[in-house]
Amino acid sequence: MNRAERQSAIDEIRTRFDRMVSAVFVDFNGMTVEEVSKLRDELRKSGVEYRVVKNTLVKHAIKDRPYAAQVTEILHGMTGIAWSYEEPGAAAKVLKNLVKENQKLKIKAGLVETTVLPPSQVEDTLATMPGKDELRAMLLATLMAPAQNFVALLNAPAQNFAYLLDAQRRKLAGES
Question: What are the residue ranges of helices labelled H in the chain?
């Protein structure tokens, strides 16, 4: 790799780190080509970009970032990076499921904005975060609850009156 190609690769990696909401660093040592292909396919379906890049290029790309020292510590051996650009937990969710299936795949660390997370937090916290659609549904349910309660309160007198009429009808008909 000549100097221009190297600088281009560093700039490309830097751009990915600028755009990302979160990133997950994984060790895929010992995985077969089929397993890695499945990993890439699953991540792609979730809108996550996955690349295997040289550790030295990543170190150069993030050298001026506040998290550079912590990330540099985990950059050894074979490292794949899964960048998520929209949902912070997207990559972590997919990787958590794949780690359960394949013992060779290991999560090294996670990165959310400028915070480096250990592997346990990536699996326990980041992977369990609700996605955009789930958050929208929760917000909608919160916004709809007062209106639903109000409608129920408005319907209560009419409903109680209907119960009263039904009870009176049963009483007159001799039903219990």
Answer: 3-19, 33-45, 55-61, 68-74, 90-101, 119-124, 132-173
Residue 165 phi, psi (nearest 5): -60, -40
For 106, phi then psi, to 5°, come to: -130, 135
DSSP letter (8 states) at residue 147: H
Cα 131 to chain centroid, rounded: 6
pLDDT in tens, 95-144: 988 888 888 889 999 998 888 889 888 888 777 777 777 778 888 888 88
What CATH superfamily is the domain 3-129?
Ribosomal protein L10, N-terminal RNA-binding domain (3.30.70.1730)
Q: How would you list the strands of the sheet with 48-52, edge to edge?
A: 48-52, 80-84, 22-27, 106-112, 115-117
Give this prediction's pTM: 0.73
10 Å CB burial of residue 93 (0-12, 13-18, 19+) is buried
